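During the reporting period the student researcher (J.K.) took over the structure-prediction task from the postdoctoral fellow and processed the backlog of single-chain submissions. One of the processed entries is reproduced below for the supervisory committee.
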Amino acid sequence: MNISNHYWYFKSALSPRFCDDVIAYANQQKEVMARTGGYGEKKLNKDQVLDLKKKRNSDLVWLNDLWIYKELHPFVHEANNKAGWNFNWERSESCQFTKYKLNQYYDWHCDSWEKPYQRDDINNPDHGRIRKLSMTCQLTDGSEYSGGELEFDFRNYEPHMRDESKHKIQCKEILPKGSIIVFPSFVWHRVKPVTSGTRYSLVVWHLGKPFI
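J.K. obtained the following structure tokens:
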């Protein structure tokens, strides 16, 4: 798929109060170890945990609160329009509040799946849908931690980009507190290891019917 904008950003779009409220609220909820799609919700043994952490090492909290979606959705619509993607999306998944502490990271990955969601209940609103738009919200200012850089890699869907300097980009626009990055869910990206401090972020995926 050829696209002219690989991501769209809003600098310092969310108020410091909103960011602090989300952090305080999420830190009161039950925290779980972050997983990748292949591990599901099953209990993992020691070797599986070690294998998982070669790819992803962070802690997260799932949030489904209307006041959060109400704040974020206008930016998804605006980015989808102004970036020229114009993807048809219908609903959002749970918000993923993520903590990246010392040495924690998420290696190269994309958020989309090979096939649409298949649910036992076909009336489940996720059934038959795919992730179309991903959103990352910066809740901690970039001055409060080191490392933890968000990077994008475009060569996986634009194979003509052979020069690494042209297809790999560090997303510096996300660094100010309250900044938002929206991008197609098939775009590859990573979060590099945090070397000091803690990086808090909020990630949300927006679903729709498969591309035709």
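The committee noted the following: The two ends are 12 Å apart (CA to CA).
J.K. will present the remaining backlog at the next meeting.
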